[in-house]
Amino acid sequence: MKALTLSDTRILRYTVDAIKIAFQFFFKLVLASNLSTGANLGSLFGSYIENTTNNTNELNLAPCSYFIAVENKYYNAECGFLSVPENRNKIGSPLIEIPITKILSESPSDLEPVFWFQGGPGSKNNFNYPVDGLISNHDFVLVGYRGAEGSSLLECPELRDTLSKSKKPFLSEVSLNSYSLSTEACAKRLTSEGFDIEGVSLNQTVEDFEYARNALGYKKINLYGNSFGTRLQMIYQWRFPQKVNRSIMVGVNPPGRFVWSQQDTQDLILQYSSLCNESPFCRARTSNLVSTMWAVSKNIPDSWMGISIDSDLINLVTFMGLMESASTPNGSLSLSAPSVLDMWLDASEGDFSAMAFVSLIAPFIIADMHQWGHSIAMGASSLDYNQTERDYKDEFLPKNTIIGAPFSQLFHSLSLGWSTNSGAAAGSNAAIKSDVETLLISGQLDGATPMRYARDELLPMLSNGHHVILQGQGHTETFWNSQTNARSTLLNSFFSSGLVDDTLYQDQIIEFDISFGFGEVAVFLLIALFVLCGVMILVITKLYLKCQKRSFRN
Fold first, then answer.
1. Is 132 helix (H, G, I), strand (E, B) or coil?
2. What class, spelled out in words, does domain 48-155+204-258+434-497 have in CATH?
3. Pair 288, 345: CB distance under 8 Å
4. What is the pTM assigned to this prediction?
5. CA 387, CA 161: separation in Å to the nearest integer?
6. How far is CA 389 from CA 383, 384, 395, 432, in A?
7. Of 285, 261, 271, which is closest to residue 457 (Cα–Cα)?
8. In which band, very low, low, confident or very high, does the pLDDT at 535 lie, cut at 50, 70 and 90?
9. Mean pLDDT score of the chain
């Protein structure tokens, strides 16, 4: 028998294959343990309902418990299902069921209940943030999002599979067309299975909230939400102003702003460049962050240690990170501006391990970040991607910007495959005047819902509007995970009396020093896998030699 031989080339190839498998497995663990993107990936251990009751023709609530994981606390609640028409625009439309949860006020109070609107789209209307004392004096109501929960779910495994297996480059014309075709296939399959996808729209979701308010017997309600949820809030208070007491919107998304501008992102990078100059740690790594990122963008290699690097995925993840100015406290590997900028600075120093790691895991992040059927249906029911006079493809191509508009490119391709425009109406294209007392809360460094749109497009339409801009803060996760006393004071004072008390807020300091970023994870796994491969080779060699000795004896 021949002696066992393994060439260096084969060892490297086997090692790289093992690294890829391990990275993919590691990503799934990270996602399950609360990998945060700021754009609402959700958590495996998020809020959930116990002991709900299913009633088909009316709203009958039964006692239940509602668990808020970030507080590790159960709240007394009442849960049930509300029957609503699948499509109110069609006579005789069948009924679907959406879950209703009423978390009970902890003390008797005449204050109006708070109706929550979660961000997304593409997620359930759960609440897993600090309650900040609101439940002490208010009922807190969660109305399920049609298409994302309840009896009618718009799942798109076709698209999820295509996204997770997409070939480089991720945003090439071929790739974008494949996403459109997968979305189209999903819509056709859902329709053939009996789903009326035109019924999943912004307006009909808002009508579910009004149906729930009436069924619960509330005369007036408070509206409270973040990100995508603020769009639903706007439509509700435009359509049913007499039913609204006050409204608080965090990370405000006015009409038209499901489309992300590449210039807004470039301007945000410029702001971070200035902040970098104020940080001794960041300033020691680069004298000009913008110039450094420009130089890196022109010289990204095709691979690192045999792992392919896709600049489209780097840009997508960079945009996702720029949504938030700080990592979440419990995030094992949180996406934030400091973490993605650290990746670019590593690359400027010749270390592309973080970019390789991100290129490997990003398809899984993107494939699992939304319930895509619901997400696309919500977008298709607005006019954001349905304005025929706009050349979206040309608009989204990078033009003198470092990362362009990668999310807009992706979402536009998805909208092309979902041909229905289901009920674009109230407030779909421009803000409408409102007299409702409204508090807008924006982070100065919010990359998902830039604060200038709340200030310039929505605030002028609010006769009783207020706008608080939080310095150094990003999108919603930054808001929920910092300055607890200041946040609680701001929220409770406005809902109870209409007073805007932001006096406890201090400027948020940006921490550029990332102790365990993407690059550190990549190198750690690489070393571990080299050791593992070495051990495996030794074991295989030992077994072979043992078998060889036996063969000689025979």
1. coil
2. alpha beta
3. no
4. 0.86
5. 29
6. 12, 12, 12, 22
7. 261
8. confident
9. 86
